[in-house]
Amino acid sequence: MRELAPRLAGRGHDVTVYCRRGHFRERPRYYNGVRLYYLPNIETKVLATPTHTLLSMVHVLFQRTDVIVAWNLTNALPCVIPRAVGKSVAIMVDGLDWKRTKWGPVGRSYFHFSARWVGRICPKGIITDTADMRRVYLEEFSTTSACIPCGANVETSTDPDAVREYGLRPFQYYLVASRLVPENNADLILQAFERLSSNRLLAIAGDANYRSEFVERLKQTRDPRVRFLGHVASSDHMRELHCQAYTYVHGHSAGGTNPSLLRALGCGNCVLALNTPSNAEVLGDYGIYFERDADDLLLKLRHVEAHPEVAEAYRRRASERIRKKYDWEGITDLYEEFFLRLAAGENATLTHSSVADAGAKATESC
Predict the structure, then answer these.
(1) What is the DSSP secondary-structure string of 22-83?
(2) 189 and 321: one domain?
(3) Which secondary-structure segment (H or E) carries 337?
(4) CA-based, 20 to 30 A from 60: which of 209, 222, 226, 265?
């Protein structure tokens, strides 16, 4: 919403965003033309999002709104509240949350239940961000959705020496940037890297926001070339970590458009990505794919390690992908049309829902 909401406000729309109060020391009332409300939540792994959304949905009942939009399948059930009083509600359902191993059996059952019923809760307002996710919802749950990608920006380095604060040197490290949860396959990446003959380091930016045996096992590696950077809060530093990386390794497997993959492309990375339908849809021929097998990833790592000209060629082309398919202005066009149709009472899920929809400027159809 940091990119989309101000752009919609700049086009003359009245936009409000609900924020978690505990995440902000300073609480301005407006950000780039967007009204902000700060509401509390119960800050635990399971309850943080749904409790904040529940309060937000009650609060928004007393506001004048044409459309309410929620992000993430976690928020599907609270959407019943505004729907019950006749408000138009949309939800961007994100990835395959019911398959994420960080959730226990109860959590996965909740997500699967939500995925099965979200089409009835928001029958005119489901959004998926890849054609693969649209297919999953259509085939598994008979739920139609508008397919609107996430956007990204093209970024360039302004302070290459910033990576030295993390014990790194420009183009002398491989980068992983993700939450350290099993479905992002940092363990597989680590296994392959440990067998790679290279003087370069492996920098892992990310963590889990709860106690994790998975993370503890990762940190037991004896390879001195591995650097665990933890959560990198500075967006400027993350930009530099991407821009100065020799290669970015992306192990995300949970479906949907992953923001880290988009940012890697926008920063001009050579990308090695796990071969999944969603990753392939985002990356196209702008990167190299590996199977979910440490031996296969090792072969690909050896290839880019031995052929720096290959890595450089992918770096030169990477940002083209963002300009052609994920430019934020084009994505805003798609969302604006979706919200206007929903506000008019139309079935907005039919917007940009097939391969034939070419939609907006500089934006390919999902």
Answers:
(1) GG-SS--SEETTEEEEEE----STTTHHHHHHHHHHHHHTTS--S-EEEESGGGTGGGHHHH
(2) yes
(3) helix 328-343
(4) 209
Q: In what order do the strands lie in the sheet with 30-31?
A: 16-20, 34-39, 30-31
Q: Are strands 271-274 and 288-290 parallel, antiparallel or unpaired?
A: parallel
190: part of which helix (H) or strand (E)?
A: helix 186-194
- Residue 167, phi then psi, degrees to nearest 5: 75, 25
* Prediction pTM value: 0.86
- Cα–Cα distances (Å) from 365 to 117, 255, 331, 358, in that order, read 26, 17, 10, 5
Exposure b/e, 98-119, CB count within 10 A at least 16 = b = bebebbeeebbebbbebbbebb
List the domain range (segments joined by +) for residue 128. 4-151+327-350
What's the CATH number where 39 sits?
3.40.50.2000
Same domain, 137 and 275: no
Query: Smallest Cα–Cα separation from 42: which of 52, 28, 31, 33?
Result: 52
pLDDT of residue 327: 93
| Positions in the chain whose pLDDT score sits under 70 | 209-210, 352-366
What is the domain count for the chain? 2
Among the residues of 95-185, which ranges form H helices? 105-121, 131-141
Same domain, 345 and 313: no
- Amino acid in the structure at residue 74: T
Judgement on whether residues 245 and 109 belong to the same structural domain of the protein: no
303 and 212 belong to one structural domain: yes
Place of tokens 């508008």: 146
DSSP lists the bridge partners of residue 205 as: 177, 230
Closest CA to 322 of 291, 278, 275, 363: 363
Instruction: Tell me if 244 is assigned to some domain.
Output: yes
Task: Give 206-261 pLDDT, tens digit per residue.
Answer: 987 667 888 999 999 999 999 999 999 999 999 999 999 999 999 999 888 889 99
pLDDT at 47 (0 to 100): 80
Residues 184 and 311 in one domain: yes
Give the integer Cα–Cα distance in Å for 73 and 53: 11
- Listed in sequence order, the residues at least 6 apart from 105 whose beta carbon sits closer than 8 Å to its beta carbon are none
Asked whether residue 364 is assigned to any structural domain, the reply reads: no
Same domain as 207, residue 301:
yes
> What is the number of other CB atoms lying within 10 angstroms of the CB of residue 220?
6
